[in-house]
Amino acid sequence: MSIEAVLNRIDENLPAATERLMTLLRIPSISTDPAYKADCEKAADWLVAELTDLGFKAEKRPAPGHPFVVARHEGPGPNLLFYGHYDVQPVDPLTLWDRPPFEPAIEQTANGEVIRGRGSSDDKGQLMTFLEACRAWKEVNGTLPGNLTIFFEGEEESGSPSLIPFMHANHDELACDLALICDTSMVSPGVPSIAGQLRGMLKEEFTLHGPRIDLHSGHYGGPALNPLRELSKIIASFHDDTGRVAIEGFYDGVHEVTAEQKRQWANCGFDEKAYLGHAGMTVAHGEQGYSALEQQWARPTLEINGLWGGYQGTGSKTVIPAEAHVKITCRLVGDMDPADLRRKLRAHVEARLPVDARVSWDTDLDGAPAAVMDTSRPEYEAARQALSDEWNREAVIVGMGGSIPIAYYFKSILGMDALLVGYANDDDAIHSPNEKYDVKSFHKGARSWARILDRIAG
Amino acid sequence: MSIEAVLNRIDENLPAATERLMTLLRIPSISTDPAYKADCEKAADWLVAELTDLGFKAEKRPAPGHPFVVARHEGPGPNLLFYGHYDVQPVDPLTLWDRPPFEPAIEQTANGEVIRGRGSSDDKGQLMTFLEACRAWKEVNGTLPGNLTIFFEGEEESGSPSLIPFMHANHDELACDLALICDTSMVSPGVPSIAGQLRGMLKEEFTLHGPRIDLHSGHYGGPALNPLRELSKIIASFHDDTGRVAIEGFYDGVHEVTAEQKRQWANCGFDEKAYLGHAGMTVAHGEQGYSALEQQWARPTLEINGLWGGYQGTGSKTVIPAEAHVKITCRLVGDMDPADLRRKLRAHVEARLPVDARVSWDTDLDGAPAAVMDTSRPEYEAARQALSDEWNREAVIVGMGGSIPIAYYFKSILGMDALLVGYANDDDAIHSPNEKYDVKSFHKGARSWARILDRIAG
């Protein structure tokens, strides 16, 4: 049977496929907020039912946090594991959404139809591209393609705390020949992209404690240590005037961008002006001496993700608060070691505390090194050809600024290489209000997986 | 009739007087939050009823915000105006309160009995000392003392937006011979204090806008301008390494502390170690070269009262937020001009904005200069003697770190000097969780006003 029949079936299925995705998007499976625990269970149950319907032997597997979904189809050829995550980011600030985030809809935009809603791009829409490829394949060929394991998690947006123990406990079941991961974006619209390197991540959060209690800024303003001011000084000390992180030893393990990478990336279709413009920026604000693409793909960062203390309500309050709080993430590249970096960051902060101040660290936050793929595997070339056929444009091996720790753990725990192919676009507003996924991404994504499976499945 | 009879009556009335105060404390008259508008009305109504019961001709006077209370008693002698405010500060963070803030109670502490609850010290307990002095006077003498005007406002904790228009519109009614203000504290427990100078205040709030939307820290971390980082840098630039405010021209109009002030203040009973220790501090953190008392009373400040942006919820969110927010107050001394200072502060901030960032200023926030009293008036000496008699300790003329703009406006609009006497203590936790007022302050405060009225009323 020719691949064309499967592709045609994907085209015919699109309306029904979109409705299936909408059903999944209506489940508010926010993993980081315990209030949505039951919704995460519901999303896992829905996927088990969907996979069972497709002919997989599918199970929900309990975890201390949110459950995993594991499904198997025995077949010929290499054992391919497909990974995605069904959990989504929080939706605040809710006021900036143009529609309720969990009431998805198709919208017409200047760039074509989009599916609007939280999780449409990250990662429910992406993972459904693979299931829709499987569905069409089954409908045309009477069986699922090759030898497949499906592995979905529900804690990707909250640091995957259950993932490592689960992989150790289920090593033999999950250690396949190659992982396929659909959680990345295209370098620019219409340019099929395979991720060759991903940044790692270190998460930190601390509270700076100053006065014993909140103080009146008249009675104590002047003599009092102000935690908001002290925290601001510490944050300001994290970078030098060139945008470089000023923590001692921060860049240990970083690999400079090679001439070959610069050459490849110059021709990958990345539109720096459009990328910056989408975010309302006219220049790249990172380390001087690096392009926006290099700053995003190949350079480490230290970002403040949350900062708060004192009075935030209506009007004014003359308070000097007892505490100030900050959430930090660092993006890691090359061989940077998260545990070592955590020590350096904490030492930097603690060396800058004034007398009468102390700091308490959140001890529940994780980290993962960067992941650098073995792009010499033959499946990489097969996927490049499949993607080039579908998108009528040569596929490129790119870097990725985001962190997908799973790729690192697949290699370190399961000894499994990964092939990362995704169809998201940079304007999808993932993690932001009004997240969307292009219908074109959803449709051609499913077609792309069918073509890839046609080349690498048994 | 001797003053002793009035003082004895105050002693006898204490249990009933405390219950009257508790009734007022149960009304959550938070002026800065529109949700409590009806409660502010209720507090004003309660005071009108109380004043009417005392024999005053009392009225609630409407205002665009919360109403004023004005009451008159015609009598002999100079027309004395007594001022207080019935509104209170917000109560957050509520979790730090040991009891519901608007369910007041008497508590036994190591330092004696206290009345615990929001507003107990600032200012409901203080204003009730005057009404209880009037009540005992009336009960003993059959009439209220002298020639009295009572003037209560309900917007003191939210910048008194209606105050200036109201004073202009009711100039003749309010322009008395002298104002008595009870909204200050004693320099140390048991040391009766008259405030000779009060710091002014300038309020500011701004939002720093960076990216057009919230961004993903993987896709944009590095190239993106991070408003939390930029705001922290601006805040860090407000002070130099010696604790001095680094805004150009900030100290214009400041008067250096005189040798005579230093001499007086050295003997005013201020316990620097206890003052700092109460706040959990071991050193004064303000401008180098000034004592804690000078930093509090005679030096201007710039304090951060609120700071926020990005994700504050449970867990981690890899976001670069579009905005960051800060609330600022400056305390002013000498001849510092709030309008001029506002221009300088804004210029300082705007000169430090990176490309692609902009700032929007809250335009609703007010300012008031410092107030320096005419302590040569004979009522000051009379009050000093009355207070010294009551507290068995020489009363002192002190500075005050807090801002009571009313004293400035009484002079500038009504041409009226003010005598500021208060019985609060520095450990009253005003504006903080677990606010209290010593029963001793409440009791001896009423006795003090009776003695002062005995000397200066007709």
UniProtKB/TrEMBL annotation, chains A, B:
Q: Which GO terms describe its molecular function?
A: metal ion binding; peptidase activity
Q: What are the protein's UniProt keywords?
A: Hydrolase, Metal-binding, Protease
Q: What's the protein name?
A: Peptidase M20 dimerisation domain-containing protein
What's a BP term from Gene Ontology annotated to this protein? proteolysis
Does the keyword Hydrolase feature in the UniProt annotation?
A: yes
> Which stretches make up the Peptidase M20 dimerisation domain?
207-355
PANTHER family registered for this protein in UniProt: BETA-ALA-HIS DIPEPTIDASE, SUCCINYL-DIAMINOPIMELATE DESUCCINYLASE
Organism in which the protein naturally occurs: Paenirhodobacter enshiensis
Name the InterPro entries on file.
Cyt/Met_Dipeptidase, Peptidase_M20, Peptidase_M20_dimer
